[in-house]
Design brief:
Structural class of chain A: mainly alpha
Number of strands of chain A: 0
Order of helices and strands of chain B: HHHHHHHH
Strand content of chain A: under 5%
Structural class of chain B: mainly alpha
Strand content of chain B: under 5%
Oligomer: heterodimer
Chain lengths: ~150, ~180
């Protein structure tokens, strides 16, 4: 069970830093095609920003509810990634060959670019949820039971 | 003055790595390991592998430290074996010999950034030339990772997913 940190400095810094970290995580995720970064790092940054709310404000705080709700999305990232591959199959090509994504009005390079973005989002969701899930598994069993039984 | 960054970084890496092994208090060992990851990420960034540096800084220094700390809170904070057993004689002799052998072999490696090295001549030029026309993605690392080698990345994602599921199965128990 993680209780709220009682220092006002930590609380104020957490309140200020968490949105900034989340914004940076989204930037890293969507800037991965143009610079360093990508789905894996962006997902870890997003996951750790949610973990920071739990570490600073405690399990019971209303700010931490989002991190616990995210737990229900375990597997959604895999679904997105494999779903893009399945859409390529439906489009008549090989599994994960983004050139066969059937989107009218897009040339083949643009389709592959779109496929990269979608799969990166899948990786990011998967990694973020897994990071939160492992840490919550280690920290507080009863909280998990409560949040999953709501 | 080409060694202005290398030598201090190497010394810091060695000091933090040795400290993480030597120190008795496990909490200090975890924090030293976090410092080690930070210096390692600086090394990656200095070598030009900014993606790897990113992952090392976020996962190694951030997430792994929290994981180790939470594990530590569930166990003993002190290393119970105050007197550690001395290392076996064979290891003391064999490991320096192995190090010397590796240093000897490292002379034959191609120079850093050598355009004629096998790694830069086989398939890398194809990716560097074709990746933007094929995928409209300026970052070649991303296009190789998520497009040309997409199936590998999907299986890596499956590995991460499996790790999360396994942790949940092992650690989440009904509180009675």
């Amino acid at each position: 069970m993680i209780k709220a940190h009682d220092s006002i400095i930590v609380q104020s810094l957490g309140r200020f830093l968490v949105p900034v970290i989340q914004l940076f995580g989204l930037y890293v995720l969507f800037f991965g095609q143009y610079g360093p970064g990508g789905g894996f790092v962006g997902g870890v940054i997003l996951g750790t920003s949610l973990l920071l709310t739990i570490l600073v404000f405690g399990h019971a705080a209303s700010r931490s509810q989002l991190a616990k709700k995210v737990l229900h999305g375990d597997g959604v990232g895999m679904l997105i990634y494999a779903g893009v591959g399945g859409l390529c199959l439906i489009g008549g090509g090989e599994f994960l060959n983004y050139a066969n994504l059937e989107i009218p009005g897009l040339e083949i390079p643009a389709r592959r670019s779109l496929g990269i973005i979608l799969t990166q989002i899948g990786v990011a969701v998967d990694v973020a949820v897994t990071a939160i899930s492992i840490i919550l598994s280690l920290s507080a069993q009863e909280i998990i039971e409560d949040s999953l039984n709501e | 003055m080409t060694f202005a960054y290398e030598i201090p970084l190497l010394i810091l890496l060695l000091v933090t790595a040795a400290g993480a092994i030597m120190v008795k208090d496990l909490m200090s060992a975890i924090l030293l390991l976090g410092c080690y990851s930070f210096f390692l990420s600086l090394v990656w960034a200095w070598l030009g592998a900014v993606d790897v540096a990113f992952v090392e800084a976020v996962v190694g220094a951030g997430l792994a430290t929290v994981l180790f700390l939470l594990t530590l809170f569930g166990t003993e904070p002190k290393d119970g074996r105050l007197r550690r057993p001395p290392p076996p004689i064979a290891a003391v002799i064999a490991l320096p010999l192995l190090g010397v052998l590796l240093l000897y072999a490292a002379k034959d490696l191609p120079a850093f950034g050598d355009p004629a090295s096998p790694a830069s001549t086989h398939i890398s030029p194809f990716f560097l030339k074709q990746s933007y026309q094929d995928t409209q993605t300026p970052n070649v690392v991303t296009s190789v990772l998520m497009d040309y080698r997409s199936l590998d990345t999907m299986v890596e994602t499956v590995v991460i997913f499996t790790a999360g599921i396994a942790c949940a199965l092992l650690l989440r128990r009904k509180t009675s």
